[in-house]
Design a protein that fits this description.
Layout (H helix, E strand, L loop, with lengths): L2 H19 L3 H17 L3 H19 L14 H25 L3 H9 L1 H12 L1
Family: Belongs to the cytochrome b562 family.
Cofactor: heme b
Protein name: Cytochrome
């Protein structure tokens, strides 16, 4: 096999595996919602942090995609950028809550986590 074909096959396999690993946005949103529910209900610091980490991973994955409502829009369009900005806000809130949890401040972390709902409501109105 020539060198060019080997490189092409490797590039195709890498692209396919990256696409296969990325969840679709509805799955990511379901993951965020289920972890958020668990975060608000738990009294365990470890469970709280695990839930936040699950939310963060799903939000990062969702940032890579484009919601159905925006299909056909350019990735650099104002709407897609705003959608991604909403997830950036959520990730920042998650990080803030996680930092408090890492300090053992569960109740303060939970108060920050309750703010996620406002972010969700704002961006769901636009892009759900």
């Amino acid at each position: 096999m020539s060198q060019k074909i080997k490189v092409l096959v490797a590039a195709i396999l890498l692209s396919a595996s990256t696409l296969a690993m990325a969840n679709d946005i509805p799955e990511d949103m379901d993951t965020i919602a289920s972890n958020y529910s668990a975060v608000l209900k738990t009294d365990s610091l470890e469970s709280f942090k695990q839930g936040l980490q699950g939310m963060r991973s799903a939000a990062l994955d969702a940032q890579k995609g484009i919601p159905t409502k925006l299909k056909g829009k350019a990735p650099d369009s104002a709407e897609v950028q705003d959608y991604r900005h909403g997830l950036t806000i959520l990730i920042g809130q998650i990080d803030q809550s996680l930092a408090l949890a890492d300090q053992g401040k569960l109740e303060e972390a939970r108060k920050v986590a309750q703010e996620f709902k406002g972010t969700r409501d704002t961006y769901h109105k636009k892009y759900r």
